[in-house]
Every structure is written in C-alpha cells, then in structure tokens.
C-alpha cells in the first residue's frame, strides 16, 4: 500500500482483508443498531495502541481522527501504512501523550477504510459492502467506540481528544457517556453542521457520485485506474481549499507557474499542481465510499438533535471540556467554538490557536495543540469517575 504516483491508483485505497496489519490490532464487536435505522451485523474496529495500560486502567486516552485520518497516530509510512503518523509529535518522549505515561488508543472510525467496517469492507456474503453500506451518524461512530472501550477493559478514559470530525465525536462522548471519560478536548468544530459546511460537503458528495466510475458505490472490484478517482479528486480539491486560507495560498503560490509549465499554453499554475498532488495522493490511500459515508455523517452532525436543541444538550455536560479553535479557520470559524465555550458549563474559556494555515492548524500547530492536550489531561486528574455510566437520549 505504499504510495506510488507512477502507476494508476487502485479502485480503492482501502486496507483489505489479507493485507499486512502493520501496527493495527482488531476488535470484533458484534451487531450494532444504527441511529437512522438498520444495523451492521458484525462490526470490526482497527485500532493502534501506544504505551501500557496501568493496573487500574486510569491512564487511557482515546484519540479520534478527522475525515481522512486513520488509526496510524504515530510511526512511519510503509507497505502496511500509506502515510506516516498524523499526530506523532504529541507522542514523543516528554510530549503530552508520552507512551511512558499514557496508554493511547487511536481507532479507525466506523465507516473508515483502514481496517474498520466501512463501504470497502466485506459484508457477510464476502463481497464489499459498497452501495449496501447503511447510512451512519457521528452517534453511531461513538457507540462503536464505546463498545471498543468495553472490549479493552477500560471503565473510563482519562481524556477523549479530537479535532474536526474527531472533535465532533469527542463532543458527543462528553454528552452521551459522561461516566466513561474524565475530560475531553474539542478542537476546530462546532455543535452542529452549518449551512456553509453542509453546502461545501454536499458539493463534494455530488462530485464523487457523479463520476461514472462510482457505479452507485459498487466499484471496489474494478481494475486499477477504474475507480471514481476523478470525482474524489474534485471533492478533495474543494475540501482542501476550505482547510487552508486565502492568505497562505497567495503567499505560497501567488500566480506562479508550475515549474516547467506554461499556464497560458494549457500548463498549470503552481497552486493547481498543489491541488492535483493532494487529489492523487488521496486516491492512493483512501476509499471514495468512505469519503461519502463520513462526509454525510459530518453533514448530519447536530448535538441538539432529539435533545431539546444545542443549548440544552451542551448544558448536560459534566466533565471538564477544553475547547480550542484556529483563528484563521474559515471552515469552522471561531464563533462556533465560542458558542461551545459559552454553553458548556465545564468549559473555562475558548483557547485560540494562532495560525496562518486555517482549519489544518489543528494538525500543524503542534506546540499549541500540545498545550491544549496537556491542559485536558491535567483536568482529568481533578475529577472522580462516576460509578456507573449514563447516556442522554
């Protein structure tokens, strides 16, 4: 699964049964009923761990990835893992999630494509789920993560940590399972998808599903080069522009031509080459069906659904929550994190990350994020775990 841009991309960049596991472990968690109806008969979760669980299981931290992330939180790229660890600096010796102190668990999300049950996984009939994969929500994703918690023998996480889509899940954890965590970090996200987010995400979904090679979602057995790569590439370009900022792109690229090309003779500008690169890279490590399933889950994200609205839902949070946002984020602007900080009774304030990189600042501004993780873990030491778990309907 190493990325080789000289060859056509596979129909799907998903991890498949029979591929080398790499650092992954797997948990078969059984049947899961889904929020919007239907079920998955046997959910498998791929996850990676770092460090050692202590005797009373009090040092466990759950780290939740964003849309195109996976369980490979730290470690090199290679045949088993198409990209290097996405938050590795936070797990270095002396860093907030130092494996000498913490047992860190990073699962691939439900609907994912790197070992957890998703559209590219085999259904009970030994064929890829494809178009038959049911619609899932963020609440379904955390329900599966709760089952993984039980599987690992962990009564309560010291912290649940996430940014972007991972932040949605961290926030839902704090509302739904207050007895199963002692603190939460929520970065670069809001309480519910906004009209702007729904709009840009819907445009991405249309780009994929309009690709003739999408085949209704049943393309996983196609030959290399015959997957819906063009559609997913367009989706990735749209998304990437929302992840970065106008200022950064102008400073980095301006109107410069790509080296060796002439834009006025059908060559590319440097920024076009940059977006092409990210589109091609994603096609070789990701799955279009997963992109659709997870983007749809982000579109339906709404902590107030069925709970009396946003304010009512956030007011029920009882564990300490650290809320962070990136000052240049145009996808999840600071006003959304300010709302969280104002309405969550256990949040002290909004912690602002200064960055020119926009939404991607939650991945790139390592020192600032490390400070927030450290703050969150410190708060975990100040609260006792409830004797029994509870949930908010």
Task: Write up this protein.
The protein is of the alpha/beta class. It folds into 2 domains: 25-193 and 302-380, Rossmann fold (3-Layer(aba) Sandwich), CATH 3.40.50.1820; 198-298, Rna Polymerase Sigma Factor, Chain: A (Orthogonal Bundle). It is 32% helix and 13% strand. The chain contains 11 helices and 8 strands. Strands 1-2-4-3-5-6-7-8 form an 8-stranded mixed sheet, with helices on both faces. The longest helix has 15 residues, at 195-209. The N and C termini lie far apart (41 Å).
Q: Keywords for this structure?
A:
8 strands, 2 domains, alpha/beta, Rossmann fold, disordered C terminus, about 400 residues, 11 helices, Rna Polymerase Sigma Factor, Chain: A, about 15% strand, 8-stranded mixed β-sheet
At a glance:
This protein has eleven helices and eight strands.
Uncertain ranges: 385-393
What share of the residues does DSSP label as strand, in percent? 5-15%
State the order of secondary-structure elements, H for helix, E for strand: EEEEHEHEHHHHHHEHEHH
Terminal CA distance: 41 Å
Class by helix and strand content? alpha/beta
The count of β-strands is 8
Shape: globular
CATH architecture of the largest domain: 3-Layer(aba) Sandwich
CATH class of the largest domain: Alpha Beta
> Average pLDDT across residues?
95
Number of discrete domains? 2
Strand order of the largest sheet: 1-2-4-3-5-6-7-8
The CATH topology name of the largest domain reads Rossmann fold
User: Rg, please?
Assistant: 20 Å
Fourth CATH level, the homologous superfamily of the largest domain = Alpha/Beta hydrolase fold, catalytic domain
The number of helices is 11
Q: Name the helicity range.
A: 25-40%
Largest sheet: 8 strands, mixed
């Amino acid at each position: 699964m190493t990325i080789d841009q000289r060859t056509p991309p596979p129909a799907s960049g998903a991890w498949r049964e029979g591929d080398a596991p790499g650092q992954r472990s797997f948990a078969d968690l059984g049947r899961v009923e889904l929020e919007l109806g239907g079920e998955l008969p046997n959910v498998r979760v791929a996850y990676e761990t770092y460090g050692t669980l202590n005797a009373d299981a009090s040092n466990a931290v759950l780290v939740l990835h964003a849309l195109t992330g996976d369980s490979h939180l730290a470690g090199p790229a290679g045949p088993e893992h198409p990209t290097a660890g996405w938050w590795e600096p936070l797990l270095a010796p002396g860093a907030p999630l130092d494996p000498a102190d913490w047992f860190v668990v990073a699962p691939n999300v439900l609907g994912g494509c790197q070992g957890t049950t998703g559209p590219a996984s085999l259904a009970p009939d030994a064929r890829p789920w494809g178009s038959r994969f049911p619609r899932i929500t963020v609440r379904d994703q955390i329900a599966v993560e709760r089952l993984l918690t039980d599987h690992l023998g962990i009564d309560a996480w010291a912290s649940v940590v996430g940014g972007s889509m991972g932040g949605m899940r961290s926030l839902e954890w704090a509302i739904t399972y207050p007895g199963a965590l002692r603190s939460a970090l929520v970065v670069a996200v809001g309480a519910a998808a906004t009209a702007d987010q729904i709009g840009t995400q819907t445009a991405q979904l249309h780009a994929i599903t309009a690709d003739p090679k999408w085949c209704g979602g049943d393309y996983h057995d196609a030959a290399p080069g015959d997957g819906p790569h063009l559609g997913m590439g367009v989706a990735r370009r749209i998304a990437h522009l929302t992840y970065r900022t106008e200022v950064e792109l102008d400073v980095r690229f301006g109107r410069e031509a790509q080296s060796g090309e002439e834009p006025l003779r059908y060559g590319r500008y440097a920024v076009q080459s940059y977006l092409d690169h990210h589109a091609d890279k994603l096609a070789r490590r990701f799955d279009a069906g997963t992109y659709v399933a997870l983007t749809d889950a982000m579109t339906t994200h709404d902590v107030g659904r069925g709970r009396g609205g946003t304010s009512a839902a956030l007011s029920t949070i009882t564990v300490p929550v650290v809320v962070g946002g990136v000052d240049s984020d145009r996808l999840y602007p600071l006003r959304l994190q300010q709302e969280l900080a104002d309405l969550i009774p256990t949040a002290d304030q909004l912690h602002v990350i200064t960055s020119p990189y926009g939404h991607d600042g939650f991945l790139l501004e390592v020192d600032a994020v490390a400070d927030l993780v450290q703050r969150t873990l410190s708060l975990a030491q100040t609260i006792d775990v409830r004797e029994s778990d509870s949930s908010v309907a």
